[in-house]
Amino acid sequence: MATRIVEPEAGPRSKRAAILAAAVDCFGETSFEATKWSTVAERVGIGQTALYHYFESKTHCLLTIMRLELQRSHDKFTEATEDVEDPTEALRAAVRAAYEVSDHEVLQMRILHNHMDLLSGPRKSKREEAERVEARKLVQLVERDWTNLLVRGMSMGVFPLRDAQLLGASVLGLIVSVWRWYRPSGPTPLAEVSELIEGACVRMVAT
Length: 207
What we know:
Blueprint: H1 16-30, H2 37-44, H3 48-51, H4 58-81, H5 87-98, H6 103-114, H7 126-155, H8 164-177, H9 190-206
Helix pairs in contact: 1-2, 1-4, 1-6, 4-5, 4-6, 4-7, 5-7, 5-9, 7-8, 8-9
């Protein structure tokens, strides 16, 4: 299991959570590239130099957001499936859990999946690299979550025997593709999207 980076204690005067929330809003609304680091500081109500007490760069902040979102995704999967014995119902529960999110979490997922390439190569900064390495471990953990669920279903004879790793990657790819186009203010409710993707995933795996 991936080891979490120990989060700094958030004292009553800590601005870390506020910085992360403001960065998610900025990166999600106007893109990471177009967001000025000073804009994040303005939203939090602090000077730009104060940001460096928490994050050494805008990229360091982005990598932290990505790691935290991956950890949240893994935790949601585990919570949704750990007590569900039937593999088909576990699959349905996992898909539904992936879409039980707030508008803020929608932005987090959009940021994550728009910047996955950032995890592919090492960073020169030690703090950025530490976040990148942990995020990569979490990517692998999330992928194993889905693969292991399918392996369990195949071993029980519920799902047809196939390449579970490839099938798991396909299911996960379908689920996360939604975050590239879905907007909370758009015409399609997320509950409708969830129902559609849930059915598609079950058909993909079970037939």
